[in-house]
Amino acid sequence: DGGITQSPKYLFRKEGQNVTLSCEQNLNHDAMYWYRQDPGQGLRLIYYSQIVNDFQKGDIAEGYSVSREKKESFPLTVTSAQKNPTAFYLCASSIDEAGDNYGYTFGSGTRLTVV
Amino acid sequence: AQSVTQLDSHVSVSEGTPVLLRCNYSSSYSPSLFWYVQHPNKGLQLLLKYTSAATLVKGINGFEAEFKKSETSFHLTKPSAHMSDAAEYFCVVGEGYSSASKIIFGSGTRLSIRP
Question: What's the pLDDT tens digit per position in B12-28?
Answer without folding.
Answer: 999 999 999 999 999 87
